[in-house]
Specification:
The chain is 23% helix and 27% strand. The chain is built from six helices and five strands; from the N terminus they run ααβααββββαα. A hairpin with a 5-residue loop joins strand 3 and strand 4. Helix 2 runs parallel beside helix 5 and helix 3 packs across helix 5. The chain is extended. It starts with a helix and ends in a 23-residue tail after the last helix.
């Protein structure tokens, strides 16, 4: 290697080493704490809230008055969408757990039907007289008939839609001096929209009658902004750029849709008054809330009331090119 090339290589290695040192201290030898490095980040654990969490907690005043037990079954991902690199599914596989959390926020009594493996194993051990509730040997747990409470209703359904890039818009530009060594720059901005959809139903456990059905969709927005500049300064060339991108969390959209469905279903089931907890919903963040679609005691079993027969009532029709039957306002 020629001296000039060796000099440039050493300079590059020195810069790389300095960058690593500035990024954080990493050693192949564990320190006194037993770790190679200290992790970054210090955000605290916070409650996982949606715009409907406050309304669900408000509903607990009514759920405490009626002893109805709810079970949650399978709320599966039926979109069939997976990551291109086969690293997993695009949509959460824990929608049933989200529904349980929503019911808990509303103070609804629940019975476990989703994962009964531990209970079944302990029942097997009890049947073989292997489990005791006391420290005394030989005093085994008794199996008593009717000791497990049953459910009055159960909630099942699935995530049925995941539509990418429903619509996108963007603008990009490049400009600068005419001189080959002059300053030039680029700038761009993009915005795109996708959506998810859920279909859930409430079933009477005793009769298997479907007493309520809800189908909701929520749109998700994302954006990208970028800018850059480059130029020649004598014998030096520089190129600098910066950007920002953001996407509304997809899994939070699933949780919000499920909490919205649970709020409406439980309002019907527990016969909450029309304006009991609807006011807790943030009307500026919830396009579903129009002041008229909240449930009442009179339509508890009428799940095909007018408000659900007008699913596009909150969507404008300013886009003349859009198909009115696809997320647009239905023409009368």
């Amino acid at each position: 290697m020629i001296p000039r090339g060796r000099k440039n290589l050493l300079r590059t290695l020195a810069l790389a080493s300095a960058a690593i040192a500035l990024a954080g201290c990493v050693s192949p030898i564990p320190g006194s704490s037993g770790t190679y490095t200290s992790p970054i980040g210090g955000a605290p654990v916070i409650s996982n809230e949606t715009p409907y969490s406050a309304s669900l907690r408000c509903l607990s005043h009514y759920t405490a008055q009626r002893p109805l037990r709810i079970a949650v079954g399978q709320i599966a991902d039926y979109t069939g969408k997976a990551e291109a690199d086969n690293s997993g599914r695009k949509i959460t596989q824990g929608a049933a757990l989200m529904a349980m959390s929503a019911l808990s926020k509303a103070g609804v009594p629940m019975v476990e039907r989703f994962d009964t493996s531990v209970a079944e194993m302990e029942l097997k051990y009890s049947n073989n007289k292997l489990i005791t509730d006391d420290a005394k040997p030989g005093d085994y747990r008794k199996i008593l008939a009717g000791s497990i409470p049953g459910s009055n209703y159960y909630l099942v359904g699935g995530i049925t839609e995941l539509n990418f890039n429903i619509r996108s818009v963007g603008a990009n530009g490049t400009g600068g001096e005419e001189s080959s060594t002059g300053l030039k720059g680029t700038a761009g901005a993009n915005m795109y929209v996708m959506n998810i959809g859920i279909d859930v139903r409430l079933v009477d456990t005793s009769t298997l009658e479907v007493v309520d059905v809800i189908s909701y969709q929520k749109q998700i927005i994302g954006r990208q902004i970028s800018a850059g500049a480059f130029s020649f300064l004598g014998q030096t060339f520089f190129d600098a750029s910066l950007g920002e991108s953001a996407l509304e969390p997809i899994q939070l959209a699933v949780r919000s849709s499920i909490e919205r469905a649970v709020l409406e279903m439980m309002s019907r089931l527990y016969r909450a008054p029309n304006s009991s907890c609807g006011g807790a919903i943030n009307t500026t963040a919830d396009p579903l809330y129009d002041g008229k679609s909240q449930t009442t005691a009179s339509n508890e079993e009428k799940y095909n009331e007018k408000s659900r027969q007008e699913p596009y009532r909150w969507v404008g029709n300013s886009d003349g090119d859009a198909d009115p039957g696809l997320r647009g306002r239905l023409q009368q």
